[in-house]
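Subject: design request, 180 residues
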């Protein structure tokens, strides 16, 4: 049994929990900023790719920057860099607010943010070097796939812990999609 000192009717543990912010605003802002940066990178790659249609491609004869590779960079930066970063930022904002609990571990959130950006950079380098799977949309080089799976599992645990802890309370409909 846990005993705590009380001050003005509040337990010490409740006071410590009240001092801890519910939403890690740094992680939310970092994902939003990264999403905006990747949005503009995706636009730039799309613009470079589109110049081939005017027969004025900017990098003729340069294999690492061929139109096909630049197209893959464009689509992946749109899907994984822009959309996924904004989605992760939204999850880090919404899940704690809807459950009333912080995500599982702050260090996991920070690690996953930097790991995701490293995955995106590795994907671009892999495409430029010619490591592609030949999938039309939202692919990563095959050596990146296991890292993505581990990251998704860690992120799932990070978000499921507060959702599972709220099982005695009714869940918001928004969380049903995450807890199924």
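Subject: RE: design request

Done. Sequence follows.
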């Amino acid at each position: 049994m846990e005993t705590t000192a009380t001050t003005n009717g509040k337990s010490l543990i409740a006071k410590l929990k009240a001092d801890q912010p519910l939403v890690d605003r740094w992680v939310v802002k970092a994902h939003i900023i990264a999403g905006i940066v990747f949005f503009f990178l995706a636009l730039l790659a799309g613009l470079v790719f589109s110049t081939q249609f005017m027969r004025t491609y900017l990098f003729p004869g340069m294999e690492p920057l061929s139109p096909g590779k630049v197209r893959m960079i464009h689509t992946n930066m749109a899907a994984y860099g822009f959309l996924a970063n904004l989605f992760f930022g939204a999850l880090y904002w919404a899940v704690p607010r809807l459950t009333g609990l912080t995500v599982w571990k702050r260090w996991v959130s920070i690690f996953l943010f930097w790991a995701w950006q490293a995955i995106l950079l590795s994907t671009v380098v892999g495409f430029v070097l010619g490591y592609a799977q030949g999938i039309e949309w939202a692919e990563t080089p095959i050596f990146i796939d296991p890292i993505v799976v581990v990251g998704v599992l860690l992120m799932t645990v990070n978000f499921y812990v507060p959702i599972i802890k709220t099982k005695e309370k009714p869940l918001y409909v928004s969380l049903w999609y995450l807890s199924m």
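The CA atoms of residues 8 and 168 lie 28 Å apart.
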